[in-house]
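Here we describe the complex-level prediction in full. Unlike the single-chain runs in Section 2.1, the two entities below were treated as one system.
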Amino acid sequence: MSAVTLAIPSKGRLMESAAQLLESAGFGIERLGAERGYRGRLTGIDGVDVAFLSASEIAQKLRDGAIDLGVTGEDLLREKIAPGDPAAEVLLRLGFGPADVVVAVPEIWLDVATMTDLDEIAESFYERHGRRLRVATKYLNLTRRFFAEKGVTGYRIVESLGATEGAPAAGIAEIIVDITTTGSTLAANALRVLDDGVILKSCAVLAARTGVARVPAVAALTAALESALQMGRTG
Amino acid sequence: MAGKSRAEREALERQNAAIMAVFERAGFDQIAPDIIQPADIFLERSGEDIRARTFVFTDPAGKEMCLRPDLTVPACRFHLSHAANPAAEARYCYLGPAFRFPDELLSPQEFTQAGLEWFGAGSPIAAEARVLKLTISALEAAGLTRYRVTFGDLGLFAGLLADTEMPDRWRRRLQHHFWRPHAFRDLLDSFCGMRSARRSSISALVDKVAAGDALAVVAAEIASRNLPAVGGREVEEIAARLADKARDRRESPLASDKAEQINRYLAIAGEASDIDSQLKVIHGGRRYAGARDDYVRRLFEMEELGLNPRRFHFAAGFGRELEYYTGFTFQVEADTPDGVVAVAGGGRYDNLLSDMGSPVRVPAVGCAIHTDRLKAVLA
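The structure predicted for the assembly as a whole is:
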């Protein structure tokens, strides 16, 4: 059996937390020099290579089959791979990096509490202004899936690759779908989360290409991480 | 399959020539609407569900364009740019490629659509029967022998709703939710007071509005919380919706027998020629009775054209996924050993041309045939 490849984020808090968790489970990360440290392998277990990738690439590479395992945010994973999609499965929720993907509207929309309100607004917005309500987001698929589930159709997405929370004030969109940890950025931009507007309660996850979970090295790695998480919780 | 071989191409062309001959013999002018279309018409009109399946791109000038996902909107655009008077009668047919991200078996991402659109027909009901007849004749000319026809009629539903006593804004919301069965049922229940009004994050504000002047309450709230004016909606609009919410609380609930009538109507399904025996059990009023008359006249027109409605199926809930239709809707499915496959559909869409900028209302009815799917079924 050739080695499986585990991708972990190449920088930031997700990378630090992933490295800490691996260490507490008894594994080390050995970087291999030739490719300037973007590849390595796990010590403490045989047959697990490591690839350092940007967190947003990991879900796509899982889908493409370029990697076997990945640590990434659930938001980024679910944007590329819907629950129930046979391409990949979540083996473990790792707990760190907690954040919610939410639907937020301007605070001044005092008459809007729920997605049902939003649907009604969308209809009257079209009648009054002759164009669709615009949603700024980088989560195109999560947004489409959630809005369809809630029966909201009269909107259009404006893709936003940064500072999404500023889109309503800038007049680029009326509402946003974005990730938030404390809600303070939303509040600072005079935005408010809808009562039923939490799309996903996200945290970092260990995800695997379907079928990979049965590989012995992967099963051992998953079990060790799981008990390290439990120790962390109780200890 | 990256393209068609000579034999495959010729077989499809032969099939489609037979279809188009039927349309042209009936007096429909064959037009060639643009393949590349401004995206906004599709996106503004269809919403995000179609957008998700449409190939959208930006031209060098920064304008959002798309590959047409359907030919009805391009045919409407052609009509609005060519007809001196959009409401004057016009009959078009077309044959050409359309493009969508695939979503189900047998739907390739580029496919050839044949269809016709009839604008401003003098006798709307006769035109509906005729469009169905032409669709079936075209399919038969292509070689289809085993098929089933289902239709629905949004006119009956609109008539029943108009005859049911309730505040107008409730009616508008029910009409809007016709396309979403779950949301529809929840809404109907809430109007009957079957579910106690749930408190939400804005209930406290609705309390205040109920006890005072909506605009003053909203203005005071905005001032005290120093809320910036973002999001493009006027303060008056926000206050008016809060006032509606306050009024909804005082409104006497919809009688449960009325709601029951609506639910019973939506459950009606059966052999199309026999459906009036079920329709007449529902107690509507004048408008519902008018829609029933239209239904019976349409059956009569179908028979006049040599169709046999005893072979057709009616379902009151049919057309719940097709948002721009406004009246008669139909679908033709081919019977295959592996189940039924939808090969054609159509119906009445009286609001689309005004939505696209026509200064006058243009009655419209049309159909579209998915020719690649038909070819696959006949292979």
